[in-house]
Predict the structure.
Amino acid sequence: MVFAFISAMADGKVTFEVSTPLTVALGEAFRVEFSLNAMPDDNTFKAPSFEGFDVLAGPATSKGQSISVINGSMTRSVNYTITYVLMPQGAGNATIGQAEIAVDGSTYHTTPQPVDIVDEAKSSGGGSSSQDVGEPREETDRSGQMQNQIDKDDILLRAVASRTTVFKGEPLRVTFKLYQRVNIVGYEDVKFPSFNGFWAQELDADNVRRKRETFNGKVYETLVAREFLLYPQQTGTLTIDPAEITAVAQVVVQSRRNIDPFFGGGPDIYNVPRKVSSSKITVNVKPLPAGAPESFSGAVGRFEMTAKLPPERLAANSAATYSVKISGTGNLSFVQAPKLTLPTSFEQYNVKTTESINTSAAGITGYRNFEYPFIARADGTYDILPLEFTYFDPQRMSYVTLGSKPLTLEITPDSSAGGEPVMMQGRGVSKEEVKLLGEDIRFISLGNLRLHEKRNPFLFSGLYWGLLAAIFGLFALVYVRLRRRIRDSHNVALVRGRRANKVAVQRFRMARKYMEAQDRHLFYEEMLRALWGYMGDKFNIPVANLTKENVREELHKRGVSEEESARFTTIVTLCDEAQYSPLASAQMSEVYTEGVDFISRIESVIKR
């Protein structure tokens, strides 16, 4: 536990942050909180100068910590907060400066936070007043008034490009950033451009937390909506269309309706949609300089090339691989395999490509590896030309050619081939163009080959027709059974008669449980349900006509003797008397045995 506690204290990243309001009214006091998720060193906190503010209170320090153990894992949480109460000295933009604190000898700083101080007395002259808003009007009128509560520049959508002049194939980053000075509760109808003329790659948001920025003299909270990495695919002037977002802002207005004389009125909350769009961005795409080497295939950026050469000595008819790895930053997705020229007596196969590409705000980084498998067929000594790769470097404004080392391959005769291989040389064919096939071609057998058919085909055989007949017979049997079951299910009397014995058995089991529990009332009640229910279901007698006389008549029709009919009457009468008479002499076990035996005898007589 001690080691786990120490490790829990050591884990976790130290964060030191400041929390301030976005806008403050002139003459209004507000709180500034400096939060630390660790215990600081003694007397190491240094507050900012608070220029443009009067310090009304502070610093007030609060601290707390908690330890939780879940599934053997210990987590320690620390909260150390320093609070000031400030009053702005004048309207305009002011900044809460950088604070400093130390934890375990390491120093941490907060980020300066701008605050917009508004003089509400001057700004209340234009636009609708709060009194107008509070007047009871129709909902449509109030929605229009709520639109006036949001200034045109309270919600902005900006498209920021990292550069506006690039070469073809050179990446640029476009960030769509949302600026807000009001509370936004949702977004609707989000539309981003299709980036015609560009190859677009969306970037993952590295930090989705809100930030604070000053734009056009006002302080905003900003959030990156989307960020793209664009690679222009054509030259000239390209346009990035605007993005559109409908932001739903929340406006809180003090209600003047239904004002309670003691508690006062509650606020009205309105969700006000505001459609914003970014401006168009024009990008000038310059063509690549003329005079590109033959080995240039469109790569733009900064790259390196490493080559893994095959062994310099190989046996004929053996395989080898020439590998090239191109790594760096740029349009790696468009990098093509450099051309490798081999002698005509070599069999060259398709290039195998493997890659690892990472997309970030700095561009696409990673590598692409190309493998050139081949087989040397003819022996001899061959000079392999160096492999070249050319890319355009926008920083140098020039083409850069990378090359591998020259290679000389010595191909020895194939020792696995028996004897001298047959050389089939045609007119005008050099030694390098001859393919040594060795034992690739076998001698064709002659004479009586004694060929015979190993098996008969299954199609149209006796087994085939037998299985087909069995399938049709099984289908007919299932069809007849299903038709009979459907017909019988429509006969309610037949269904009740077939279920009579099954239902009676279930009720006898329940009666036996009551008998074992010595519950006389429930036992005799369940026995009566079993006997009367069996007779009603078996002979299709309605409940209203279910009497002893009708039962004796139905039993007589089906050949049951008078003694058995009288036996049913005796058992039912005994159950009726014993159910409500605790002094009855009947034993539950005897009644249970008589009832089960009676139903069994009736079933045997009727089935005959």
The longest helix spans residues 462-490. The first strand starts at residue 16 and ends at 19. Residues 2-10, 124-140, 418-439 have pLDDT under 50 and may be disordered.
